[in-house]
Amino acid sequence: MQTRFVLLQTSHAGNVGAAARALKVMGFDDLVLVAPRWPDVLTREETVQRASGATDVLAKARIVATLDEALDGITYLCATAMTPRDFGPPTFTPRAHFPAIADAGHRVAFLFGSERFGMSNEDVYRCHAALTIPTDPGYGSLNLAAAIQVIAYEWRMALGGFAAARAGQAQPRADAQAVSGMLAHWERALVDIGFLDPASPKKLMPRLNQMFNRAQLTPEEIHILRGVAKAMSEAGAKLKR
């Protein structure tokens, strides 16, 4: 099953190397960095040292400019946002939530925020679920690499460990880029028919994002929804004539 670990605006090179090591010991190697502090972070001395031999993961890792690029092909997003948001996806512990994702046959991405600022609300709103790691209430601070290690371990166990492989028969899911493009199309259409005021959008689009995430759309359903958006825009244009 495709599994990707995405690090957003990482500021410490050593954490990238430690993340690569954490992934390798759990049998994962799809690491993507979004706008890291250091453009050469994958080859910096501190990174390589902290990887402790996981140089193949570093060699395969990619650096991209935007989160959209990092999510190509992904159908289910998990935010590792330890601080609850006032609005957003439901929050689960990894052990409670992972079996259901594994059984659904998704292409999964785990998103980790920057060491200094964590994840932005906008990025969390895009996700299907927020993950919280149970820690001592008096001290819940986890190093980035430690958090990645816990998530990677729990996900590997949900996949059956190293002794089992799952063969899912689930329908293919639309990837995150397709959902994002469809939402942008809907936003334009809702403005065209006068339903959405771009000067005061409130939380309409994040709420629609969450609704469509729960629906677990297929590529065919994305195509249908884009057709609906196109029809709405055409109807709006006729009304304005």
In whole angstroms, how far apart are the ends? 51 Å
Quaternary organisation of the protein chains: single chain
Radius of gyration: 19 Å
In the predicted model, the low-confidence regions spanning at least 5 consecutive residues are 164-169
Structural class based on helices, strands and sheet pairing = alpha/beta
Largest sheet: 7 strands, parallel
Percent in helix: 40-55%
CATH architecture of the largest domain: 3-Layer(aba) Sandwich
> Topology as H/E string?
EHEHHEHEEHEHEHHHH
Q: How many β strands by DSSP?
A: 7
3D shape: elongated
Number of H/I helices: 10
User: Please, what is the CATH homologous superfamily of the largest domain?
Assistant: SPOUT methyltransferase, trefoil knot domain
Integer average pLDDT: 89
- CATH class category name of the largest domain: Alpha Beta
Strand content: 5-15%
CATH topology of the largest domain, anyone? Alpha/beta knot
User: Can you tell me the number of structural domains?
Assistant: 2
The neighbouring-strand order within the major sheet is 3-2-1-6-4-7-5
